Amino acid sequence: MSGMNGDSTQHPATLTRRRVLGAGLAAVVLAACGDNDTPDSSTSSSTSSTGDDGSAGDNATTTTTTASGSPPAQAALTAADFVALGTCVLVPEQTAGPFPLEEQFDRRDVTEGYPGHPMRLGFRVLDEGCAPVPGATVEIWHCDATGDYSAFTDGGGGKDEADGTTFLRGSQTADDQGIVEFLTIVPGWYPGRAVHIHLRVHLDDAIVLTSQVYFDAALLTAVYADEPYAQFGEPDTPLERDGIAGDAENEGTILHTAAAETTAGTGTLALLNLGIDPAAA
Fold first, then answer.
1. Among 27, 152, 197, 254, which residue's CB has the most CB atoms within a 10 Å radius?
2. Kind of pairing, strands 179-185 and 169-173?
3. Which among 118, 111, 99 has a CA at the least distance from the CA of 229?
4. In whole angstroms, what is the distance from residue 77 CA to residue 66 CA?
5. What string of DSSP letters covers 256-276?
6. What CATH number belongs to 5-275?
7. How many CB atoms lie within 10 A of CB 101?
């Protein structure tokens, strides 16, 4: 398991820019979703491999294919998929850590064939009035199943791919409903941090949000029971002890997850309403 000395030593206080906008503003999102926003059945959660908590079950890595041998095609995510998430919040600013790149990789599938539990990751970029922000670019990066980041020497033991690698990094531009989607894997873990995904939101030439998003512990327990995660065991730092996440400012940044089919096979659908302040820089 790789260790990230740089990431774990940067513990700035989480900013309090996040605010819960309440049911009244959530109604704005509801109003924005017309009759044509009904999600396609291909994006619905699979109940055959989930527990009562909605986490992925024992069959989470089973690949589902069509008669032609390819995973089934999927309809794009719509606003209706995000309305059910409830409150709309401004996501708190958090450190980018030591591993961002200036170079952008415009791609939906960021896996580069790296093994792991398939995850369909979707964000809906909203402003503080819960209106979608078309044209915002969401950039993500996270470690692989072994806890290793691409592009950098992490300084940890075991696998440590560095310069020249680009796996599990990518960016997408929001559609007219503010939605972006990535095909990735559930990240592994490394000492001193809760499991997380880094992100930045770019609007025009400005970065208006730098933050991190996190996972429900029940999902991680289920996913980490299987390879390639099982050899590393459970994370050593739960969310409530993470010095960057904090225990009071992360309610709006825990991904909403459910078992679902992805184009890489049976895995997890992870969604979040990504509230930003377009005037921030």
1. 197
2. unpaired
3. 118
4. 21
5. EEEEEEETTEEEEEEEEEEE-
6. 2.60.130.10
7. 13
pTM for the full predicted model:
0.76
Cα-based distances in Å from 245 to 96, 144, 168, 200: 12, 20, 21, 16
Torsion of CA 3, 100, 18, 195, to 10 degrees: -30
The rounded Cα 146 to chain-centroid distance in angstroms is 17
Determine the residue type at 36: N
| C-alpha distance from residue 99 to each of 8, 35, 207, 221 (Å) | 12, 42, 16, 26
- In percent, how much of the chain has pLDDT > 70? 70
> How many Cβ atoms from other residues are within 10 Å of residue 153's Cβ?
12
What 3-state class would DSSP assign to 24? helix
* Domain-wise residue ranges, the chain: 5-275
